[in-house]
Amino acid sequence: MAKVVLVTGANSGVGLALCERLLDEGVHLCMGCRNMQRAETARSALLRSHPSAQVDVLQVDTSSTISVLRAAQEFKLRYHRLDYLYLNAGIMPNPQFDVKAFFRGLLTGQVIEMLATGVGILTQKDNVTPDGFQEVFATNLFGHFLLFRELESLLCGSGQTSQLIWTSSSNAQRSAFSLDDIQHRAGSQPYSSSKYASDLLSLALNTHYNQQGLYSSVTCPGFVMTNLTYRVFPSIPAFFWTLLMPVFWLIRMFTNTFTLTPHYGAEALFYLFKQKPEALDPYSKYHSLTSGLGYTYSEARKMDVDLKTSEALYEKLLQLESEEKRKLQDQQKTFDVRKQRSG
Ligand SMILES: NC(=O)C1=CN([C@@H]2O[C@H](COP(=O)(O)OP(=O)(O)OC[C@H]3O[C@@H](n4cnc5c(N)ncnc54)[C@H](OP(=O)(O)O)[C@@H]3O)[C@@H](O)[C@H]2O)C=CC1
Ligand SMILES: CC(C)CCC[C@@H](C)[C@H]1CC[C@H]2C3=C(CC[C@]12C)[C@@]1(C)CCC(=O)[C@@H](C)[C@@H]1CC3
């Protein structure tokens, strides 16, 4: 039987490139996307290169609790197994490029580190979702946590192993994250905070689920030219990025994190697909890297995470999950009562 793989954020960038590579392996692919039109366009493109492939679309907006719960319900009706869950959808809204910090980095010799991670040169302005969550936290982390929890029964089946694979980032930073403010309501680095939270959560999930055959890993695609990065300079036309390509190829001589294309960015995500999950290191992040000459490979690098903090975050997410579910039940009850009264 073909392995069933669900990929969120599958209609563009790293997610779409990963789908392309997974189809070469003969998987039964389910593309989790928020916009059905964009999803169908991407699905058609995948079917053009893999005409006999099994490719389905599942509507899911990871920033919305109700959408995630409905998507999981629909998934459980359609499939009886889930072997790989790629938690890839992500946003970095309203990014602000700090030109001064960039030039300071040039003078202090830290510019390569800055370009490799984006740390110090990028901040974001977050939004609040209709559910009342910080949008970056909800989209990148909490929605994925809920999705995983709802699909737990399919992932933790008897005698099989399954994998959760998070698209994190080298932009993840302990200093951007606080257990007292897991949604990052107060700061200006919600993206960094959400990615650090996914690193922590992955560790906690390994603690709690390895015995049930479920393994969680985190990846970083490197710096990839996608819609997410184009939005760093929204007023500048896309060809500007093409003009910068020679500069980026040059920078690649100094840092192997400039993978640049979605295909290369998906390297570590695809690498994990082919590994025995028991052999993976829960304390490492798997990076997609590209050498100066354009050779792409995957490398495990230790993360700055600890068990105690990961457990504390896990507990907070469980609590938030039960609060959300209670809120939805109450809303449903109120709705039912109103319906009864109106006859
Ligand atoms: N590009 C880079 O340099 C790096 C990217 N990453 C991570 O890689 C992942 C993929 O991003 P990338 O391919 O670069 O960027 P893209 O913008 O191309 O892809 C992001 C995907 O996530 C989807 N998405 C966004 N919000 C939601 C939502 N609320 N519900 C469901 N899907 C949603 C997007 O859908 P839609 O098309 O509808 O917007 C899109 O399919 C992200 O997690 C990102 O943080 C990590 C390190 C570096
Ligand atoms: C002046 C320079 C020649 C051009 C500036 C380019 C910058 C806008 C990019 C250089 C490094 C990029 C980068 C990211 C976004 C765009 C840059 C800052 C990320 C922060 C995107 C999201 C991630 O998760 C990080 C891993 C990326 C790190 C590099």
From TrEMBL:
This is 3-keto-steroid reductase/17-beta-hydroxysteroid dehydrogenase 7. It is a single-pass membrane protein. One of its GO terms (cellular component) is endoplasmic reticulum membrane. Belongs to the short-chain dehydrogenases/reductases (SDR) family. ERG27 subfamily. Keywords: Endoplasmic reticulum, Glycoprotein, Lipid biosynthesis, Lipid metabolism, Membrane, NAD, NADP, Oxidoreductase, Steroid biosynthesis, Transmembrane, Transmembrane helix. The chain crosses the membrane at residues 232-251. InterPro entries: 3KSR/17beta-HSD, NAD(P)-bd_dom_sf, SDR_fam. SUPFAM superfamilies: NAD(P)-binding Rossmann-fold domains. It catalyses: 17beta-estradiol + NADP(+) = estrone + NADPH + H(+); 5alpha-cholest-8-en-3-one + NADPH + H(+) = 5alpha-cholest-8-en-3beta-ol + NADP(+); 5alpha-androstane-3beta,17beta-diol + NADP(+) = 17beta-hydroxy-5alpha-androstan-3-one + NADPH + H(+); a 3beta-hydroxysteroid + NADP(+) = a 3-oxosteroid + NADPH + H(+).
